[in-house]
Design goal:
- There is one protein chain.
- By secondary structure, the chain is of the alpha/beta class.
- The protein has a single domain, classed as Rossmann fold (3-Layer(aba) Sandwich).
- About 35% of the residues lie in helices and about 30% in strands.
- Strands 1, 4, 5, 6, 7, 8, 10 and 12 form an eight-stranded mixed beta sheet that branches.
- A hairpin with a 4-residue loop joins strand 2 and strand 3 (about 60-65).
- Helix 1 packs antiparallel against helix 2 (about 25-45).
- It is globular and about 65 Å long.
- Bound molecules: 1-O-pyrophosphono-5-O-phosphono-alpha-D-ribofuranose and uracil (URA).
- 1-O-pyrophosphono-5-O-phosphono-alpha-D-ribofuranose (PRP) binds near residues 101, 133, 134, 136 and 165.
Amino acid sequence: MKNLTIIDHPLIKRDVAILRDAATTNHLFRTTLRRISSVMAFTVTHDLRLRKTRVKTPLERTTGYRLADDIVIVPVLRAGLGLIDGFLDVLPEARVGHVGLYRNEKTLEPVDYYAKFPQGLRKSLVLLLDPMLATGGSATAAITFLKRRGAKRIRFVALVAAPEGVKRLAAAHPDVPIYSAVLDRELNKSGYILPGLGDAGDRMFGTE
Ligand code: PRP
Ligand code: URA
């Protein structure tokens, strides 16, 4: 699992427990997703390039910094929407694309229904967000979309990853680093992550 970074932080461990808890309401699930994604964004962006600027304080001029990397955040619909505000809180300059995929319940293979990306992906750092990496089919397909549109630097951010999904994604796109809050045990026969947190989209939006 050399492509995988588990982001180890007490605040993340606390929030993963809230998200796993079947008693957590839809509202608490959404607010927790926003907070945990903001904490994760610190590690995912730890090596961003900077450009020096000059800043005038009330007292004198000094050196300041701006991000030199053009950042594009891409949530995988639907559940990736839950991570977007936490990332935008700390990356307000980012542009946002969307990719819509859902898993066919029988084959577990992804079905695509939407894709819209900002111009100039070739030069951007793309942060692809989806809380669940299960079989890896959706993440693999989303990255293939992004590469067809020219993206060269992509990072995939999940909350809960299954070993099966990490292996599939790393085999299909070995150039894409994977960040996750936890690596869970396995998938069940229906393709759900164990222990997992259930269906992330349904828990966010109160659907079933
Ligand atoms: C979930 C999740 C991922 C996908 C992961 O979406 O948000 O996109 O499953 O599974 P995989 O790794 O096996 O592809 P889902 O298909 O439930 O769609 P939804 O978010 O629209 O409900
Ligand atoms: N998608 C989810 O939302 N949860 C899982 O456990 C697997 C795929």
